[in-house]
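Example record used in the benchmark description.
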Amino acid sequence: MHDVWVHLRLCLECGHVGCCDDSKNKHATKHFHATKHPIISSLEPGEFWKWCFIDEIGWE
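Model output (structure tokens):
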């Protein structure tokens, strides 16, 4: 797609890697809507948080 992936997110259910919502294509959120896999974590160095799309909360 020749786009820049701003930050990478990891689906903790299946291992899919997608870009964050700051990127144009928002692949991590699209993956959630397609699969209903609710929890992602950051793949960025030094970031150790997780996010639940269903509850819309994050934690470390």
